[in-house]
Amino acid sequence: FLPLPSLFRPFLHSSNQFMMIIPLLLLSFFSSSVFSIRSWTRQIDLDNSECNRTKWCMMRPRGCHPDRDCTQGYMLSVVGPNQLKVEMFAQSLVPSVPLQYLALGFSKDQKMGSDMVSECVVSETGVEGGEVFLSYNGGKNNDRVHIDDLEAEVIYSDIRSSVVNGRISCTFIQSIRPQIDSSHGGRIVDLDTDFYIFGATGSAQPDEVNPHDLNRDSFYFPLISEEMVNPIKIGNTKFAHPGTLIGKTTWRPTTHSHHLTTPRPVVVAASSVILSFLTLVLPLTYFLF
Q1: What are the TM regions of this chain, as residue ranges (predicted)?
Q2: Exposure winner among 107, 214, 240, 265, fewest CB in 10 A?
């Protein structure tokens, strides 16, 4: 080993002195790492008490509690001008998968096809945070819509996700009338008209979602609203929404896809853990060797 910097040598004149600093170093190491992990995996507060009042809700089984016995659930509420809050939750897949998605589709009929979809992809551990994508069901296939950074920030905001006690959840704000100048070939629409709402969960890959469960008796089979829903009218709220903008200019293709993610404090936590670990190990290696 190379000579240790003189900064650590005063601690090594006595083995007793060295042993005294170990508890302090361990405390620094574990306090920095555990706090970040706990704050990151904290369960999202999902409130279903406003269902059929200020919230539109679709859950399996009906009347279940989001934090306890729902196998799947989806809630929508208008929380401000041009702001639709989306709340999605489900049991983790069995057997577990590295990535699981929750998706909400807006359709003109009760069949898959020609639907705008908002999907949230969450890692099994929840450490890396949820990623939100905009996609489109063209027939039985789902493809992500390539939107640029500005469009993504206009459409989605305030993204949160968690994985706690075998349950995943994801919430975000979606623009009711996205203030963007392109509908991307009709794949992005305003949410100010009647839709059937689709809710689905399943396994995912980094660049796409996998097909959902096709067994109608499965807990993970998609949910479809029995009636059409106009998102802008949920809760009979009185907000001044902006006028429609998308589709008023010529569609311009973009060259890359974009997704939004929740903040990732795990990066900061990792650097803190590494620094604390080195502070602990370097004096020990010098003392031993």
Answers
A1: 20-37, 266-288
A2: 240
